[in-house]
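worker-03 picked up job from queue 'complexes'. Input manifest follows; two sequence lines, order preserved.
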Amino acid sequence: MRVHLHLLLLVALLPTGAMAFDLGGLDLNKLTNIVSKGKDAVTTIGEPQEIEMGSGIASTLLGAAPLVRDAALQKYVNKVGLWLALHTERPDLPWHFGVIDADTINAFAAPGGYVFVTKGLFMTFRDEAELAGVLAHEISHVLRRHHLQAIQKGAQMGLMGDIAGMVIQQKTGKDLDAFISTGMQLYSRGLDKEDEFEADRMGVVIAARSGYDPNGLKGVLLTLENMNPTDDALSLMFKTHPPPKDRLARLDSLMAGHFDGLEHQPQVAKRLLSMQQSLLHARR
Amino acid sequence: MGRLLTGLLALALLWMPGLSIAADTGVVFIDTPLHTAPLYSARSTATVRANTQVEVISSQGLWLHVKLPPPGGHTGWVRRFDVRLAGDTASRPKSSSGLGSLFGGLFGGGSQRKTEVTATIGIRGLDTEDLKAAKPNPAELERMKKYTATRAQAEAMARRARLKSRSMDYLQATAANTHSSGGTTTKWPWQN
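worker-03 finished. Artifact:
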């Protein structure tokens, strides 16, 4: 099982063209041939492997910022998040949602069903539909395997050193480390802008399917647009995402005519606001 | 005795970032709403006009608790980045230098030091450096998994808010976008 995973990881990171490499006696030509049989290397990463990689990345994200110590809050975002995930093509992933203890404004997804929102972002929401909009955007990154694709693309663009390292580390059982550190870099560099736009247009649909006012995500983007972009609390998020103005413009034109009447779906303010109140009064 | 007390106060402040901080002043540089709580959703009771000098009572997360000048003398919360704090020499307002001056009054030292102090205790950040330095925290991951919701719990939560499922295809990207959003008419799992 372990060896199987090594091979899959290795194969997924390789350029699809056949090349002659001699790395630790592995016949890479043979491996790349396996890949070329699949229509997309990402699809050769099975769901169990995707979840294992995601767990490693999620664990490292939690190493950067732990969960807010509020069980009711964490349980609440897991219910909202799972309700949304049930309205997607991957309802049976082990979905986990968490609010992490950082005042900066951001949200993250990791492969296999992990979604994080910072406390700073959570405190900007005006209702549950806004929370749902953000969670659905992050869920979409997982659905479309955006992070796995970006890691693979990075490998194709010249991170062969990392792959060689993985081959060596195979012997010590630390093969996932290289994958995780490459994955972690994505949170500083950001995904492809088109992936962000795609997550936006999928997110509003998932929120609408789940019965929420689909304009929640737009509400959050408006809040962000009205913030000072030079603020430290926003710098990483602004660096890794297209400007809110552009995201709003795209959503406006795409959504026109498709969501008529759905703005009357519930926004559900009360229970979100009470979660914020208890966070405000929490004393660490 | 006095020194001990000061030391204890400083220590207490280090341990309680974002809680009450000694008063400082600042100038609101853009019209901004005065909220009743440090939340966007909180009611706003007034608009603080640009160039109003305010007294800063405390800070919490991205917000400052401020007192307006007489005759009104109202108190309320404004977004931190709408206020240029006294001693902030940066031409463009930045949150860290702003709060730096807040702590600078307590700890003294040059402006560079103020910023450093703020970077560690002003707001709990999560930036590129934090991500780069992060080490796995498996115990925290296990904690996260404990909060996982069951399908029944998610459905009950949705019922309480009268959220009703509906089917809807993904939006297709415009011609300008090369990616497909995987629009489909398959039956969704909740459609029995």
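worker-03 released lock.
Chain B is about 35% helix and 20% strand.
Residues 9-22, 89-122, 177-186 of chain B have pLDDT under 50 and may be disordered.
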